[in-house]
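#struct-pred
JK: can someone run the complex with adenine? inputs below
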Amino acid sequence: MMARGLQAGRQAGENRRRMTTALLSALAEEQQGLIELLQAPVLHRAAGREVYTGRLWGEPVVVTLSRIGKVAAATTATLLAERFAPQRMVFTGVAGGLAPAVRVGDVVVSHALLQHDMDASPLFPRHEVPLYGRSRFEADQALAAALTQAARRALGASKVHQGLLVSGDRFVSSAAESRALQAALPEALAVDMESAAVAQVCHDYGLPFAALRSISDRADDSAHIDFQRFVQEVASPCMHRILAQWLQAGALPG
Ligand code: ADE
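RT: done, structure tokens with the ligand placed:
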């Protein structure tokens, strides 16, 4: 009994160690320095992307850039799911803050994701993805909880929010558009251009998914200026600190 218990424990440990995480970001600036941190990196070229496999803080990863927008992100997520067989996927990058409490420099971890520009009404309710019978894709709750815990350790609890993240093929750059989004989707914490598309792909493949986004701007009239400054100076060091906390915690579920 004892020997079997030990064997099962060791097996569980090995399974955990073997779990490959796909790490996606839209822009090179958001992932800056991550490839240099890879242990035993191998470069693969596919679908016009450069995909790296290797280990980060000892954990197996597959890392690439999705490029910008829902289609590019969905293509990239599909490529990773099909060719690199990850066991979970995490999107890291920046987002525009929508809810008043979500400030520049804060972090949002997705609990659910929605495409704010999906509208096949009157055939289907606004925001519902046709033939899926849903407008929201849930993030993997264990994964989201582990990322939240890591972000809280890295940045302090007051800067970390969990909730609805919305995506669309628009850079939201006016207070009027931000207000309209908040009126249509009062629960939305932040807006980006990729995460909900990747959530849909991961739903199709049965892959656990969550998005981790630092807030670069308030999706208002100065969003484009704040965005550029933030992605150049703050985004990637902030994400590295959280990813290091999370992957080094290794044994945590999620
Ligand atoms: N990503 C970062 N800021 C954004 C914004 N304002 N709109 C859409 N995506 C974003």
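RT: quick notes.
The CA atoms of residues 124 and 254 lie 34 Å apart.
The pocket of adenine is lined by residues 94-96, 171-173, 191-193, 216-217, 219, 223, 227 (CB under 6 Å).
JK: thanks, will look after standup
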